[in-house]
Design goal:
Number of strands: 11
Strand order of the largest sheet: 1-2-11-10-7-8
Length: about 375
């Protein structure tokens, strides 16, 4: 949900609040009429306190103050009608009602100011999130793309999952990844990976060289982050393993050329992409997967590239493990490959929308981890 949708929700809430204002006025009217007609020894005036208190729970300070003023006026009418406004019992009731109305009006003011601050914070947060995880282009050469992101944290739109594309002279490069962990640290790491990919994707000709540069960038970013913390062991610079190995990024980096019906893949500990072709799903398993980004120093082998056929009419689905590890009420994982086979539609946009809804249904509306999906369709050449 973006800020505009959320603002529309606030407007709907405001209309709902205005409709609810009828309730406290009806309450005042009922209490006043009954209080005037009951025996002298019965006093219902204290019930008028409920009117401004109820209003403060859903309306702003001005409606609350208005309801409080009407309630005080109603109490005065009851006093004049039953005895005298100078009657000691009625004077105390009027004073107490006035004081409580002032207090609840003040709290309504604080609540309204807090809501306005929340709107501003959400606006800034969405702008920051969009600058980090930019929407994918609908087209890139012969490719048509669509994506969806589901953050596990309530109210968040970005967590530790990431994806991006970069258009080169001869084709398109893509990355999808998953940062270990959650919260602000995961967002910071995701931003670092995306920034490095966008800066390096057009500089390196070969995919393994790009992944090597990404590995160096992620490792440097992680060490810089560790240097800024107070809980880093004193011997960490001399013995980075296994302390530094606690943070890493799984990723799949792809290159899809325009002129050849193929795709090149370097997998860094990431779930294999799924290829949908002629109603069948094929997992593109890497023959020699590299370690996750950030822990490449733990092995002497460089990243290896795998070549797969990717031709017109094929659909490629990239995803993070938050999709396949989503559980239903019985604890069963989401069967992504099976669901992909049963998809009845066409086009990457409808595909990710359908999987989005199906995944949420499977998980009961709440995910335990961030989840991201990117669908890529190879369009037939015109003519």
């Amino acid at each position: 949900m973006d800020v505009r949708q959320w603002a529309d929700g606030l407007q709907d809430g405001s209309r709902w609040s205005r409709a609810l204002l009828v309730v406290p006025f009806v309450l005042i009217a009922v209490v006043t009429v009954v209080d005037i007609n009951v025996p002298p020894e019965v006093h219902l005036g204290p019930f008028l306190v409920a009117a401004p208190a109820l209003t403060a729970s859903f309306a702003g300070p001005r409606p609350t103050a208005l309801v409080g003023a009407v309630a005080v006026l109603a109490q005065a009418v009851v006093a004049v009608t039953r005895s005298s406004i100078t009657d000691l019992n009625h004077m105390y009731q009027i004073a107490a009602l006035f004081l409580i109305s002032v207090i609840v009006t003040f709290f309504a003011h604080l609540r309204e100011r807090r809501a306005a601050e929340l709107v501003r914070l959400r606006t800034v947060a969405e702008a920051a999130q969009r600058s980090i995880l930019r929407p994918l282009p609908g087209r890139s050469g012969p490719l048509r793309l669509a994506s969806v992101y589901l953050a596990a944290e309530a109210g968040a739109q970005l967590g530790g999952d990431l994806y991006a594309t970069a258009r080169t002279v001869r084709g398109t490069r893509l990355i999808i990844g998953d940062v270990r962990g959650k919260g602000l640290d995961a967002i910071s790491s995701a931003a670092g990976v995306l920034g490095a990919f966008r800066a390096l994707a057009r500089q390196e000709e070969h995919l393994p060289d790009l992944v090597t540069r990404l590995e160096s960038s992620v490792a440097a970013h992680r060490i810089d982050s560790l240097n800024e913390t107070d809980d880093r062991p004193e011997d960490a610079p001399d013995a980075p393993d296994p302390y530094i190995a606690e943070a890493f990024v799984t990723a799949a980096v792809l290159y899809i050329p325009d002129a050849e019906e193929e795709l090149r893949l370097v997998s860094c500990g990431h779930p294999p992409p799924l290829l949908l072709r002629a109603g069948r799903v094929h997992a593109l398993d890497a023959t020699q997967p590299a370690p996750p980004l950030g822990v490449g120093a733990l092995t002497d082998d460089g990243p290896a590239e795998d070549l797969f056929t990717f031709r017109a009419g094929d659909m490629l689905l990239l995803y993070t493990d938050g999709v396949t590890e989503a559980r239903d009420g019985s604890g069963h994982f989401y069967p992504l490959a099976e669901r992909l086979v049963s998809w009845p539609g066409a086009g990457p946009g409808p595909l990710v929308e359908w999987l989005y809804a199906d995944l949420l249904r499977h998980a009961g509306g709440h995910l335990g981890d961030d989840a991201a999906m990117v669908a890529v369709e190879y369009l037939p050449c015109p003519g």
